[in-house]
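This part of the workshop introduces the protein records we will be handling. A record pairs a protein's sequence with a compact description of its fold. Comparing a sequence with its tokens is the quickest way to learn the format. To make this concrete, we reproduce a full record directly below:
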Amino acid sequence: MPEVDALVLHVRDVGERRRLERTVHQLAATDLLTGLANRRELLRALGARRDPPDSSGALLLVDLHGLGAVNDGGGQAAGEAVLVEVARRMRALAGPQDLLARLTGDEFAVATDAGPVLAYALGTQLLARLTEPYQLDGSVVSLRVSIGLAETDGSGPDDVLRQADLARRRAVQLGRDRIEWYDAYLEEQLVRRLDLERELPGAVARGELDLVYQPVLGLTDRSPAGTEALLRWRSPVLGTVLPAELLPVAEDLGLVGELGQWVLDRACRQLVGWSAGSRQLWMAVNVTPRELIAPDFVQRVAAVLAEHDVPADRLVVEVAEPRIGPDLPTVVARLAGLRSLGVRTALDDFRAEHASLARLRRLPIDLLKVGPHLVGADNNLDRPLIDVVVSLGDRLGLEIVVVELESAAQVDRAWRAGCRYGQGFALARPATAERVEAYFEQFPTTSR
């Protein structure tokens, strides 16, 4: 019957159309390589999970590091094989109700209805599993992983994704292979960090850097022996930024050499102005290990000394002991190169631990800078550790500088222990070049 045939054809058309619509929807919601959901589907699912409003859950944002090297070494096929294996490992760990997604080339996500504690446990499992080696044809590769975690209760999909991404960024900044949990304070820190990264490039060219100077005094007669140049970034947008916040950003942006060169040049120029007549001061500048181990560092120092006609022994190059780490052999070579020029070298932030004492014997240094904790607290009657350090310094031919002295009692104990130099608010505060110059005028002659 024609009517029946037409009805059958219509039903078939409707069925085919629905199957086609399901296929199109699936393709639109799926990452073709891994079969996981894509960003669009993740955002849709996060929006759906807001009902009921008091429902709780979490989003884990997983960032893979090292995939570019896999592509460079084995081609696109190798990189795709690793991504497929990443997806397989994630499926094996995720729960049946968890949504897995691939957001970009090396970024994945897990949306879970589990509470934040269970979500963190899942993140720990993902971190362990995804950092295990990947077997490829003829090679084995490893990836590093950073995971950001954000709770989904009551927040919109875009906000949850942004929060998880901020936590992921924090995990990257703290060294990778870790999980970071989003909170409001974390967001403040990360926004500040992004502002620093945006504003710091070009700060030298814009004339935004400045130096302040803190005198170093002889503890016997309290007269100036030298100064330490301290970097300040006077940003018109962010205000005054101190080295503790500035230098990590500069290292990540590859700007440490540029900033260090500016500091060295400006400090030596200032030293020339303070060295008139019989005044003999040293100028200490701080360098990071990354700056110090640069192949041309010693040559650049020699060039600046020659340009400003500064006697080499009036410059002190300081490096912080806790940051030397695996670069110790190269640091030793660079410090020896500086001493061959006549430049004096200093080890800052010395901890007096067993590893520090062993390292001290290897480092070619002239000055050892220690904190006030070694001279003991004002109410501490025990024998201070500074006596041990001074004794070791005498055997190694080192001068001891006690820094961050904030009380007259600390100054007195440092002097009685045999320390030659001191630095800190109890002696002289950091100040501009003009104020330090006025301070020096109180001492007609100074010597090293």
Notes: The first strand starts at residue 58 and ends at 65. The domain at 23-182 is CATH 3.30.70.270 (Alpha-Beta Plaits). DSSP finds 16 helices and 16 strands in the chain. The first helix runs from residue 2 to 29.
